[in-house]
UniProtKB/TrEMBL annotation:
Gene3D superfamilies the record matches: TTHA0068-like
Pfam families: DUF309
InterPro entries: DUF309, TTHA0068_sf
Protein name: DUF309 domain-containing protein
Region described as Disordered: 130-150
PANTHER family: EXPRESSED PROTEIN (PTHR34796)
Length: 150
């Protein structure tokens, strides 16, 4: 099975670069191209939740993780060639921790999406070779510089 290039890029940005803003950018494009597939949206929300929490937006992180957990849990545990069951469990734990953050704060930590399909693992490896990490990572949408504005 050949996987969508934008999905491959999402996995590279998520697992290798921990660049959750870029995860949002590439998966949103795929989500729109795939007629707003709820599975892609939920994967996007996991990345956005991590992005928010890493940037001290606990409320935004909780909203995203709760929504992602609810939707991801409705899919088979090996969807899209990944260990979705593990991601569902971890997103649920994160969501619960975020809901209780005020009473029980905890340090930010990354998640990793485990790849089950060997073909997907190979495609991600090949895609990663062509993706340069963003240094520094973007903190939000970037406006064109003045030379490019009309």
């Amino acid at each position: 099975m050949a996987y969508e290039p934008l999905y491959l890029a999402y996995l590279v940005y998520f697992n290798r670069d921990r660049d959750y803003f870029e995860c949002h950018e590439v998966l949103e494009e795929l989500w729109l191209a795939q007629e707003r597939n709820p599975l892609y949206k939920a994967l996007l929300q996991v990345a956005v939740g991590l992005y928010h929490f890493r940037n001290n937006n606990v409320r935004g992180a909780a909203i995203m993780m709760i929504r992602a957990h609810e939707v991801l849990g409705t899919y088979p545990g090996d969807s899209l060639g990944i260990d979705l069951a593990k991601l569902v469990l971890e997103a649920g734990i994160y969501a619960e921790q975020l809901k209780a953050y005020e009473a029980h704060p905890f340090p930010y930590y990354d998640l990793t999406i485990d790849i089950l399909d060997p073909a997907l693992a190979e495609e991600v490896k090949l895609a990663a070779a062509g993706i340069t990490p963003n240094q520094p990572q973007r903190r939000g949408p970037q406006r064109p510089d003045k030379a490019h504005r009309k």
